[in-house]
């Protein structure tokens, strides 16, 4: 409940990183527990992090995912299956060889398996925690930013403009004013596109099938070409062409 509501308050990015950090820290601390009560307390605390990891990760994944590929959210559960395999492979030699048996006197030195196991799991979580910070950058969810009224930030990081920016494109005029001005220009060009489509279907030997085929091919070509845009003007031009031909369909 905390992470579900919390990521709407302080953002998905912080929650995404903190869940692994909390899990790893309390996993390490739990390995030094002097008694069962301490183990229970630290297990509850690391579970607080684990419990937030799945909903927060799923929320980020889903909010950046196109609607046509949302089925991949179900495939994301494979991570849990892989994690179970890794945890079992680590637990097998440690708990199998370093755990007290029922018919022998149990000392701390003979029962270190579970401590080593928790240290290993905490270490893996800590490694993943640092990888999230060092190896790649998690950007805040556009949905969260729009919910906070930060429309300019949402536009700046969302979808195609962000992808192009990572490849060297420069869009220095990404203000809300320019964004909606360009959106209006693109939308207006859809009107003549629809009128042209109505005229082309009456052309002999072209008809509905020919019009649909040509317009679909042109739409795909313009959409693909838009990924080459290096500035705002060229992106606007490709998007205008794309919207024009898509309304012919």
TrEMBL record:
<dbReference type="InterPro" id="IPR005828">
    <property type="entry name" value="MFS_sugar_transport-like"/>
</dbReference>
<keyword id="KW-0472">Membrane</keyword>
<feature type="domain" description="Major facilitator superfamily (MFS) profile">
    <location>
        <begin position="1"/>
        <end position="249"/>
    </location>
</feature>
<keyword id="KW-1133">Transmembrane helix</keyword>
<dbReference type="InterPro" id="IPR036259">
    <property type="entry name" value="MFS_trans_sf"/>
</dbReference>
<feature type="transmembrane region" description="Helical">
    <location>
        <begin position="71"/>
        <end position="95"/>
    </location>
</feature>
<keyword id="KW-0812">Transmembrane</keyword>
<feature type="transmembrane region" description="Helical">
    <location>
        <begin position="116"/>
        <end position="139"/>
    </location>
</feature>
<dbReference type="GO" id="GO:0016020">
    <property type="term" value="C:membrane"/>
</dbReference>
<keyword id="KW-0813">Transport</keyword>
<dbReference type="GO" id="GO:0022857">
    <property type="term" value="F:transmembrane transporter activity"/>
</dbReference>
<dbReference type="Pfam" id="PF00083">
    <property type="entry name" value="Sugar_tr"/>
</dbReference>
<feature type="transmembrane region" description="Helical">
    <location>
        <begin position="20"/>
        <end position="48"/>
    </location>
</feature>
<protein>
    <submittedName>
        <fullName>Putative membrane transporter protein</fullName>
    </submittedName>
</protein>
<dbReference type="InterPro" id="IPR020846">
    <property type="entry name" value="MFS_dom"/>
</dbReference>
<feature type="transmembrane region" description="Helical">
    <location>
        <begin position="183"/>
        <end position="201"/>
    </location>
</feature>
């Amino acid at each position: 409940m905390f992470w579900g509501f919390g990521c709407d308050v302080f953002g998905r990015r912080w929650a995404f990183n903190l869940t692994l950090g909390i899990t790893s820290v309390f996993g390490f601390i739990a390995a030094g527990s002097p008694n069962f009560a301490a183990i229970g307390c630290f297990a509850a605390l690391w579970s607080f992090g684990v419990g937030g990891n799945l909903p927060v990760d799923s929320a980020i994944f889903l909010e950046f995912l196109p609607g046509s590929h949302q089925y991949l959210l179900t495939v994301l559960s494979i991570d849990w299956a892989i994690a179970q395999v890794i945890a079992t492979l680590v637990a097998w030699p440690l708990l199998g060889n370093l755990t007290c048996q029922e018919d022998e006197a149990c000392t701390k030195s003979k029962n270190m398996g579970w401590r080593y196991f928790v240290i290993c799991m905490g270490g893996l979580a800590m490694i993943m925690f640092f990888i999230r910070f060092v190896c790649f950058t998690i950007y805040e969810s556009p949905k969260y930013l729009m919910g906070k009224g930060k429309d300019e930030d949402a536009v700046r990081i969302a979808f195609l403009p962000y992808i192009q920016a990572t490849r060297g494109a420069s869009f220095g005029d990404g203000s809300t004013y320019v964004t909606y001005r360009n959106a209006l220009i693109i939308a207006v060009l859809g009107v003549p596109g629809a009128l042209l489509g109505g005229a082309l279907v009456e052309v002999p030997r072209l008809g509905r099938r020919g019009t649909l085929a040509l317009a679909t091919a042109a739409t795909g070509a313009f959409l693909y070409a838009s990924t080459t845009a290096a500035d705002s003007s060229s992106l606007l031009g490709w998007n205008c062409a794309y919207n024009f031909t898509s309304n012919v369909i």
